[in-house]
């Protein structure tokens, strides 16, 4: 780990100029010696935040795994109800949106204001398509009665539910859909928040706030967006593909 | 040119006190509410967590008062009924854990001292720091709201299915805990980034003060463990609101799954509580022994070891809960492993005192109290880590006594010691040393009276969270209650003389204790930007060897 | 030595209790010695090396040998303790094949027990001395925990599952058991008495509820049943409203039920309330009383009725 060297002869108070003698950037916060140090630190912060997101979803993944071990056949049958083509479409859409996000960050870094805004809009459109597809998927589930927990009313499941000696009726189908809605729902909320962040970047980008020496917010939102995509990359096979 | 200053002698009148410091540089409540100065945020946190400690403490006194006699009567009238009592102990636990202990040292003392120790002007993300504070406030407000709407009676652990089926304000409390979790995460995130990127020139990882190592290890736990608490609260809320059934045995859910989720966070959380406390002791002991810390690297590594090992032992809260036998055996073995780093620190502190030049001012008295009380807390943990004894002792007052020894006898004692240690730096005033010693003595005696007794209550078979109890336990309960009054008195006296010191004019020197870390290079209180010139590290940490004064 | 044990631990009701106590006492003495060592060192250093102005302290940064020793030695000690604890726990975990099985159903806030011959009892059980007994437990609602301090055994009771605990009692007489997992308002009242009998007395008790009742007037026996069978958890005798109506002054009264009709509280009504509690529910109360069918012997019912009649 290195610390930024401070040129105390030219800059006795440790701020004012960046290390190359350029005039002070309005985004330069006083407690950082250089813009580079500030940018690096922001990235560390963002990665740490992403780690917390991984753990947040991780808990749900673990819970799902435990329940799958408890109800293997019911889970297998339940996942047949998920519409693979729609899931695949969503995967492609999100991957494409990650590409457009990267292009947006590149545009910000190379002072291409218009391109930045266009790529942000493309990413937002992709996100909206994703949510739209999700809406259709959810409607289908609601119609079929494939709902979480006590709300499950679907008929025609192959494995009959049995009342055990304690008067309980374990229902693996209902449990599957509890996790399905929780995990895709939480993911969907993150997409929604992402749309807000992307719009914010688009607006600020349009105002010309980003350039080659300051594009930190674009980079950080990019990291967030890639994580949201990555989580879907794990959700998709887990729910739609694994049999 | 940066100046290298001597560190072994207190500085009195070394330089004139600056007219403006961080406290009076700007005035008005709005300047405080919108501040991004880590020192002001630290002070606000100090006030906030101390208030939470007061409320939680009042609930504690009420618990002890109710348990004074089996009839729960005071002056002929029943104090509170069982339902109320259950809410009181739940709130005592929840407030103390989530609103006080977890945020206390990181939010208040670390916030204030960490950047100074690193020679930095602020933390990495000052606005995020303020956001953390406001998240704490939001969580606190929600906790109060939950009290208004009937309060929670599940115990601070919210075990299912009771928590998913009971008719009270569990939902609001889970929201409060979720939000408080994010306050903690953002603080941890901030400190990690600060430690990596904002160290003074010349300060490598092994030149940092041990308080920074401890805070860093704590921050790792905060960032990695707290999200799991977040998702657990979300699951609990969804279960209550929509009855989705993952913890409901009626449709095949598993109530014990909740316990796994809950303790996966809550065990590392206890290391969030104790590691900063230990970090404070690692500062106080060398300073008041005027001797270099023994085993710097061992202490640094042990902080990180505790952080990491702490993630592997959550099942030791569930030995009789119905988890698999293999899991139980593995968790017990790992629990013994995690005892070692704590022991290492204890021995290193004692070795630091050996052949030191020790003065017993109030911070040092608290540090020595910590050593004694944490020793008892840690040793009694062994009774609980061993499987056969745990079967008898778990869910009894023995556990209550154990965790109060480590959390209160450990963290709270360290916190109070740290507040005294850095009080001159934070406030610019010296408190009354005489009253400091009286307060410490009362707290120490009262604490032991209250909680040592509870080990015996537990081993004799008194279960925890009990409103009614068999007559045979009454003498021990009564003694414990008397102890709580002595403890309470000690704490009130401490608060009183600390407040009283604020009415004096500034009288604290830059370095009243002769400390060697960078915060003592600033004025007391520090100026708004901490340092007039960027300090450069020029010596090993805790170096008390006599040096020659250099001048520019 | 025994004195220390006796002030810290309950009487030993089984051989397992003695095993647990042995480890406990070892840990106690170990902790006492270690704590005294640490405390003495701290206090001694504070005085022996007290502040002298100007004195220079030696610059001791570490001592590798010492640090290794005080890391490895505690680790080894911990290893010993771990295996000792594991040993005891393995015995606790595996019940002998010939154990008598008793089913426990726990609910807020009552224990019901069912013996192999189908007999049932609430809150108050007898077990024969010298024979292993295994409790197979489940809950009807929330988590509970069966804790018998004298036997040093405890295990959570989880709804939707069966959990087990076993021991072999070696001392005659009464031992108490209690719920050790928070379960709501009546958690601290969810206690019971377990009596260890010799073989003959146990058989007698199992068949007829024993002869103990013959030693008491019916109303006194009834008062004891109120405590032992869990009635006291919900029904007061001084007029205070609980989960259920107070028994004070109810005999001979006309009581209004939730269906709007009024009934006389006589012997027949009281018996029906115990056997089919939800047939008639007093207005303003919830239908949550469990049935005591099979849980009360005829002498218990007679005693309770006699006792209630005395509560004017």
Give, in order, the helices and strands of chain C. HHHEEEEEEEEEEHHEEHH
Alpha-beta content class of chain C: alpha+beta
Query: What is the H level of CATH, i.e. the homologous superfamily of chain A?
Result: Cytochrome c oxidase, subunit III, four-helix bundle
Gross geometry of chain C: elongated
List the quaternary state of the chains: heterotrimer
Q: Please name the CATH topology of chain A.
A: Four Helix Bundle (Hemerythrin (Met), subunit A)
Main beta-sheet annotation of chain A: none
Termini Cα gap of chain C:
53 Å
Distance between the termini of chain A: 46 Å
Which H/E pattern describes the elements of chain A? HHHHHH
At the fold tier of CATH, the topology name of the largest domain in chain C is Immunoglobulin-like
Radius of gyration of chain A: 24 Å
Number of helices of chain C: 7
C-alpha Rg of chain C (nearest Å) = 27 Å
Strand content of chain A: under 5%
The total count of helices of chain A amounts to: 6
Chain-wise SSE layout:
The complex is a heterotrimer of chains A (about 240), B (about 550) and C (about 300).
Chain A lengths: L34 H36 L1 H8 L4 H26 L3 H32 L27 H35 L9 H26 L2
Chain B lengths: L28 H5 L4 H29 L6 E2 L2 E2 L3 H37 L7 H23 L13 H4 L4 H28 L12 H33 L12 H35 L6 H14 L15 H29 L8 H24 L1 H7 L3 H31 L5 H27 L14 H28 L51
Antiparallel strand pairs in B: 1-2
Chain C lengths: L1 H7 L6 H34 L15 H30 L6 E8 L2 E5 L5 E3 L1 E5 L4 E7 L4 E5 L4 E5 L5 E5 L5 E7 L11 E7 L1 H10 L9 H11 L25 E3 L5 E3 L2 H9 L22 H12 L3
Parallel strand pairs in C: 1-5, 4-10
Antiparallel strand pairs in C: 1-2, 2-3, 5-8, 6-7, 6-9, 9-10, 11-12
């Amino acid at each position: 780990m290195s610390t930024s060297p401070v040129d105390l002869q030219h800059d006795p108070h440790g701020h004012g100029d960046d290390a190359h003698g350029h005039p002070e950037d309005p985004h330069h916060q006083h407690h950082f010696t250089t813009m580079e140090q500030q940018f690096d630190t922001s990235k560390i912060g963002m990665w740490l935040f992403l780690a917390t997101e991984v753990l947040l979803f991780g808990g749900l993944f673990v819970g799902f795994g435990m329940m799958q071990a408890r109800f293997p056949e019911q889970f297998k049958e339940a996942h047949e109800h998920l519409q693979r083509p729609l899931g695949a479409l969503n995967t492609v859409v999100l991957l494409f949106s990650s590409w457009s996000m990267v292009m947006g960050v590149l545009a910000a870094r190379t002072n291409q204001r218009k391109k930045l805004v266009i790529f942000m809009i493309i990413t937002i459109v992709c996100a909206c398509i994703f949510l739209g597809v999700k809406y259709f998927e959810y409607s289908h589930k609601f119609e079929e009665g494939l709902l979480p927990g006590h709300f499950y009313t679907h008929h025609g499941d192959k494995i009959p539910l049995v009342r055990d000696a304690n008067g309980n009726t374990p229902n693996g189908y209902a449990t599957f859909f509890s996790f399905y809605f929780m995990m895709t729902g939480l993911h969907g909320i993150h997409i929604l928040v992402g749309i807000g962040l992307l719009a914010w970047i688009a607006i600020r980008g349009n105002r010309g706030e980003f350039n080659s020496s300051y594009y930190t917010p674009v980079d950080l939102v990019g990291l967030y967006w890639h994580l949201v995509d990555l989580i879907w990359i794990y959700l998709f096979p887990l729910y739609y593909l694994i049999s | 040119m940066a100046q290298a200053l001597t560190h072994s002698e207190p500085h009195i009148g070394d330089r004139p006190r600056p007219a403006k410091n961080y406290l009076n540089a700007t005035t008005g409540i709005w300047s405080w509410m919108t501040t991004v100065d880590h020192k002001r945020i630290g002070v606000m946190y100090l006030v906030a967590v101390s208030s939470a400690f007061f409320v939680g403490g009042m609930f504690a006194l009420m618990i002890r008062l109710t348990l004074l006699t089996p009839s729960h009567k005071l002056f002929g009238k029943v104090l509170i009924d069982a339902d109320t009592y259950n809410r009181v102990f739940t709130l005592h636990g929840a407030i103390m854990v989530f609103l006080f202990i977890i945020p206390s040292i990181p939010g208040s003392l670390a916030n204030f001292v960490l950047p100074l120790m690193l020679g930095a002007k602020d933390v990495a993300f000052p606005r995020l720091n303020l956001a953390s504070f406001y998240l704490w406030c939001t969580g606190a407000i929600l906790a109060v709201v939950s009290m208004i709407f009937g309060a929670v009676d599940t115990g601070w652990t919210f075990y299912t299915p009771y928590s998913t089926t009971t008719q009270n304000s569990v939902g609001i409390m889970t929201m409060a805990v979720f939000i408080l979790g994010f306050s903690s995460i953002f603080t941890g995130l901030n400190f990690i980034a600060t430690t990596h990127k904002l160290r003074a020139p010349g300060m490598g990882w092994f030149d940092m003060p041990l308080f920074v190592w401890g805070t860093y290890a704590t921050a790792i736990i905060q960032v990695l463990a707290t999200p799991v608490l977040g998702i657990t609260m979300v699951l609990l809320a969804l279960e209550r609101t929509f009855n989705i059934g993952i913890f409901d045995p009626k449709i095949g859910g598993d109530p014990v799954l909740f316990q796994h989720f809950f303790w996966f966070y809550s065990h590392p959380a206890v290391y969030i509580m104790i590691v900063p406390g230990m970090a404070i002791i690692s500062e106080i002991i060398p300073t008041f022994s005027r001797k270099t810390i023994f085993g710097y690297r061992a202490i640094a590594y042990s902080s990180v070891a505790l952080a990491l090992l702490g993630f592997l032992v959550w099942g030791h809260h569930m030995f009789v809960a119905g988890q698999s036998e293999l899991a139980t055996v593995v968790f017990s073995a790992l629990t013994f492993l995690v005892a070692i780093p704590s022991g290492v620190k204890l021995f290193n502190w004692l070795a630091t005192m050996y052949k030191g030049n020790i003065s017993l001012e109030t911070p040092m008295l608290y540090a020595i109290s910590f050593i004694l009380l944490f020793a008892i807390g840690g040793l009694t943990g062994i009774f609980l880590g061993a499987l056969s004894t745990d079967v008898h002792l778990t869910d009894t007052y023995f556990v209550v006594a154990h965790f109060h020894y480590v959390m209160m006898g450990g963290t709270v004692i360290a916190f109070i010691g740290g507040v005294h240690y850095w009080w001159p730096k934070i406030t610019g005033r010296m408190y009354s040393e005489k009253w400091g010693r009286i307060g410490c003595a009362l707290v120490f005696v009262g604490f032991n009276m209250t909680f040592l007794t509870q080990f015996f209550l537990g081993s004799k078979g008194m279960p925890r969270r009990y409103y009614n109890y068999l007559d045979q336990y009454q003498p021990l309960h009564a003694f414990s209650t008397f102890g709580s009054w002595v403890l309470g008195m000690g704490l009130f006296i401490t608060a009183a003389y600390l407040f009283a010191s604020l009415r004096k004019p500034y009288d604290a020197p830059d370095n009243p204790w002769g400390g060697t870390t960078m915060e003592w290079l600033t004025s007391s209180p520090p100026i708004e930007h901490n340092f007039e010139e960027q300090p450069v590290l020029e010596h090993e940490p805790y170096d008390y060897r006599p040096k020659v004064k250099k001048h520019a | 030595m025994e004195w220390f044990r006796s002030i810290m631990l309950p009487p030993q009701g089984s051989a397992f209790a003695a095993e647990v106590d042995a480890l406990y006492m070892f840990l106690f003495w170990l902790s006492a010695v270690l704590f005294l060592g640490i405390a003495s060192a701290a206090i001694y250093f504070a005085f022996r090396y007290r502040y002298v102005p100007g004195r220079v302290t030696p610059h001791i940064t570490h001592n590798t040998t010492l640090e290794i020793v005080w890391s490895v030695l505690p680790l080894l000690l911990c290893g010993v303790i771990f295996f000792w604890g594991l040993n005891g726990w393995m015995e606790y975990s595996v019940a002998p094949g010939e154990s008598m099985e008793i089913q426990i159903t726990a609910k807020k806030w009552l224990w019901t027990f069912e013996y192999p011959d189908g007999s049932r009892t609430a809150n108050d059980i007898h077990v024969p001395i010298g024979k292993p007994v295994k409790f197979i437990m489940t809950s009807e609602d929330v988590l509970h925990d069966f804790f018998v301090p004298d036997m040093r055994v405890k295990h959570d009771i989880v709804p939707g599952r069966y959990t087990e605990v076993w021991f072999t009692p070696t001392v005659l007489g009464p031992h108490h058991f209690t719920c050790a997992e928070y379960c709501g308002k009546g958690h601290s009242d969810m206690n019971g008495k377990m009596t260890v009998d010799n073989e003959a007395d146990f058989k007698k008790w199992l068949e007829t509820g024993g002869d103990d009742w013959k030693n008491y007037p019916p109303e006194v026996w009834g008062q004891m049943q109120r405590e032992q069978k869990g009635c006291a958890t919900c029904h007061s005798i001084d007029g205070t409203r609980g989960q259920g109506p107070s028994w004070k002054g109810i005999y001979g009264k006309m009581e209004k039920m939730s269906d709007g009709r009024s009934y006389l509280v006589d012997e027949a009504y009281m018996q029906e309330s115990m056997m089919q509690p939800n047939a008639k529910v007093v207005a303003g109360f919830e239908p949550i009383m469990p049935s005591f069918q099979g849980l009360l012997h005829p002498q218990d019912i007679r005693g309770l009725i006699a006792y209630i009649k005395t509560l004017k």
